[in-house]
Amino acid sequence: MNKKLIALAVAAASISSVATAAEVYSDETSSLAIGGRFEARAVMADNEAGDSKVSDATRTRINVAGKTDITDSVYGIGFYEGEFTDGNQVNNRHINAGIGGDFGQVVYGKTDGSLGMITDMTDIMSYHGNEAGNKLAAADRTGNNLAYVGSFDLGGDNLVVKANYVFDDGDDTDGYSVGAIYALDMGLAFGAGYGEQDGQVGDSTGKQAFAGVSYTFGDFYVAGLYQDARNTSVYKDASKNSINVKESTGYEFAAAYTMGKTVFVATYNYLEDTDKNVDLRDSLAIDATHYFNKNFRTYASYKFNMLDQDSTAGITRANTSDELVLGARYDF
Question: How far apart are CA 116 and CA 198, in angstroms?
Fold first, then answer.
C-alpha cells in the first residue's frame, strides 16, 4: 500500500502545500517556512447560449508559516496564504496568528471554521466534488475568527476537536461552529459537526449539521457525508450567485483507489431544497491524478451534471452542463 499517495488524495486540497513547505530561516527558538503551488487548469463546459467554451482557471498560492518557542511547552505561530489568479486578483485565504502547545492551538484572524474537516472526508477530488458540502461562512474559512483545534492520541486511536467563534462586525453576522473526528487505528473514522450564524436568509439564524464516516483499507478509501441545514445560501454558478434556501438536505459519497503513482477518485453529490422540493445539486464526478513525485502531478476531472434545467428553479443552462477539467500542479 502506498500510504503517502492515499494521504495526498484525501487531503490534497487543504494541507499538501504546507506539507511541502521549505524552511528558509531557523535559529534556536524560531523558524520560518515558505510553500505554495503553481496550478494550471483548463475548464471546458457550455456557456449560457449552449456553446462550448474553455475557461482558464490557473492559479498560484503562496503561504508563509512562522513559529517561535515561548517556553518549553508553549509556542507562538503565524500563518499567511494568498491565492493569485489572472487579472491581478488576490484572495487572502489565511491571515492569522496565535499560540500553541500540548493543549492544541488557538488563533485569531482569517482562518478555517470547524466544519471543513468534516467535508474534507469526501472532498478529495483534484477539482470537482463537495457540491453537497456548502458551509455557512462561520463554519468555513472567514475573518474575525477565533479558532481552536486540538489533536489527542487515545492509545492508537486519534481524536481531533475544533471550535470557532466569528465576532459580529456590526451587521449581525456573528456565528460559531464545532466539530470532531474520531479515527480508529484500524482505518475507520467518524466525524460530526454543527454550526450557526446570524443574518442569513430573511435575517434568520442559519443552522447546519454535518456527519461523516470514512474507511481506509489497503489501496482503497471510501467515505460518506450527510448535511441537514436551515436558512442557508447555495452558490449556483461560478459567479457565486446564490439561491436562498430555508430547508435543505444533502449527501456526498466518495471513493478513491491508488494504483502505483496514480489515484482514481469518484464522487456523487446530491443536495435538495426540501422546502420547495427541487434539486440544487445532482452530479457524478470522476478524476485521475498522476503523482510524478511529491512536488508535481497532473490530472483530468469530469463531472456528469444530472440537473434538469426545466425542473430546477433558478438554474440556468450553463449550470446544468457537463464539465471537463485538465490540470497540472507543482507544489513547493
Answer: 19
CATH superfamily of 40-59+112-142+152-331: Porin (2.40.160.10)
* Coil vs helix vs strand at 326: strand
- DSSP state, residue 138: G
CB-count burial class (<10 Å; 0-12, 13-18, 19+) for 227: buried
pTM over 0.85: yes
Contact 125, 287 (CB under 8 A): yes
Q: What angle do CA 319, 320, 322 make, to 5 degrees?
A: 105
Sign of CA dihedral 8, 11, 13, 17: negative
Domain ranges, ordered by start, for the chain: 40-59+112-142+152-331
Distance CA 51, CA 139 (A): 37
Measured distance CA(255)–CA(264) in Å, rounded:
8
Confidence of residue 4 (pLDDT cuts 50, 70, 90): very low
Give the whole-angstrom CA distance, residue 9 versus residue 237: 25
Which residues in 82-101 are b (16+ Cβ under 10 Å) and which e? bbeeeeeeeeebbebebebe
Q: Is 172 left (phi over 0), alpha (psi -120 to 50) or beta?
A: left
- pLDDT per residue as tens digits for the range 261-319: 999 999 999 999 999 999 999 999 999 999 999 999 999 999 999 987 655 555 555 56
Contact criterion met (CB below 8 Å) for 122 and 224: yes
By three-state DSSP, how is residue 70 classified? coil
Q: Which residues of 38-47 are buried (b: 16+ CB within 10 A; e: fewer)?
A: ebebebebbe
